[in-house]
Amino acid sequence: MNPAQEALKNAKLQPLWHDPDVMPAMQPALSDEVNCELLIVGGGFTGLWAALQLKEREPNVDIILTEQTFVGDGASGRCGGFLNASLAHGETNVDAHFPGEADRLIELGDQNLAEYIETLERYGIDARYEKTGQTSVALNPEAAQELKKEYEEYKASGKDVIWFDKASIREQANSSSFYGGLWDRSGQDGVIDPARLCWGLKEVLLKLGVRIFEDTKINNIEPVGADGMVTYAEKGQINSKKVLIATNAYTSSERKVNRSIVPVWDYQIATEPLTPEQLEKIRWGLPHSRHALSDFNNMFHYFRLTKDNRITYGGGGAVRYFFNRGIDKKFADQPERYAQLADEFFSTFPQLHDVKFSNKWGGIIATSTRFCMVPNTAYNGRLAWSVGYTGQGVAASRFGGRIGIELLGYQPSDVLKMKFITKKAIPWAPEPFRWLGIKFTQKALMKADRNGGKRGLWLKFLDALGLGFTC
């Protein structure tokens, strides 16, 4: 057994965040015919935030929220918990897809995150928020040069940024793999415990009168008459005026939703709590340094500290798309992916050779061809959705929830006129072209990372189409 397999030997196949000591009791499943004004399908970030924002705007709206398993079980409770103000996955992506809207999207993103943090404070939701900013680390001299250019551009624009050269970044997080680092301290970016956020929102919604049905699988959604909707569950029926689909990567009964995103599996591992001696070896986690880190690659790793000084580590080349939109939970059990992550972890921090991993898990990212949220409506505005955050949905999903309810007619704003909302996403190709295209592109991205970021002909072609993962 190699060191990575040995370190993973006793790791539970369960998200670190799914702590049974704080997980709330499930709400009963739907078992009858019920009525409401608005049905929200999906108990993750988008659905929960949509319900709360609507209750704050119009307290008398009768809302039902359904979840196929339990609130926080999907991607929302399995992510890394990186809280980023960006709504459109970076300035390069905005320029490619929504030219002229960069300043407005930055403004909306900052507003959204400020309201996000204020909401946690106002309702006493202990999501274990920690304001860390964002820190990117370069893994070779070429990447360090490019990252330094970004620092200079950010500094010139007035952002609160710090540049670390090779020596100083290793004082912040001691890895011989790091050649430079950019710490963006602007705004309120940070990290949270995603499951605690879901469960805190759930508790607030129940107090506000939202009916929540867990363990409730939705089979079909149909229009009824001129102004109604009917939703069929496995053991019940919901009659409503409007429906918001907030299923993100999970298959929806609405075909347009499915064609706008593909589900991509991402994997993470988490260490046991580090001892003071282990923290001293890597310096990361000491009082001066609790960075939320990602490496400056196309296929990037992301790694962070928890409140009890565990390291969670995910992403990189372990990301996988499974043929024909595979979303079954069997894809979470991928020993080779976890061994790959453990190998890469020990390459990054070899001085932690004696650390053990307590948890390993997978979750699904919903990726759109525009690499950010895809909103839309159907049935004359009676059905709406916001899906496809492409790995940056922890904060953007709150904004997605807002757009969802506004598209349904609840206090719509002029934001709905922006290209960010009105421009349709290019649908994904059918199989087998989708699987072949994603696999080929992933290999091209990894090759570019090995070649100091130099993009080959295929990536340059995709860049020209605005489809080159340029963000």
Write the layout of secondary structure elements.
Layout: H1 3-8, E1 12-13, E2 33-35, E3 38-41, H2 45-57, E4 63-66, E5 82-83, H3 91-97, H4 102-123, E6 130-131, E7 134-138, H5 141-156, E8 161-164, H6 166-172, E9 180-184, E10 190-191, H7 194-207, E11 211-213, E12 218-224, E13 228-233, E14 236-240, E15 242-245, H8 255-260, E16 261-271, H9 276-282, E17 293-295, E18 301-305, E19 311-315, H10 335-348, E20 357-368, E21 374-378, E22 383-387, H11 393-407, H12 419-422, H13 433-450, H14 457-465
Parallel strand pairs: 1-20, 2-14, 3-4, 3-15, 4-11, 7-17, 15-22
Antiparallel strand pairs: 5-10, 6-10, 7-9, 8-9, 12-13, 13-14, 16-19, 16-20, 17-18, 18-19, 21-22
Q: Describe the largest sheet.
A: 9 strands, mixed
Low-confidence regions: none
Number of helices: 14
Q: Class of the largest domain in CATH?
A: Alpha Beta
Tell me, rounded to a whole number, the average pLDDT. Answer: 95
The figure for the number of domains is 3
The CATH homologous superfamily of the largest domain corresponds to FAD/NAD(P)-binding domain
| Anisotropy-based shape | globular
CATH architecture of the largest domain: 3-Layer(bba) Sandwich
Overall strand count: 22
Beta content: 15-25%
Helix fraction by DSSP (H/I, runs of at least 4): 25-40%
CATH topology of the largest domain: FAD/NAD(P)-binding domain
Question: Widest sheet: strand order?
Answer: 1-20-16-19-18-17-7-9-8
What is the straight-line distance between the termini?
A: 38 Å
How big is the Rg?
Answer: 22 Å
Q: What is the SS-derived class? A: alpha/beta
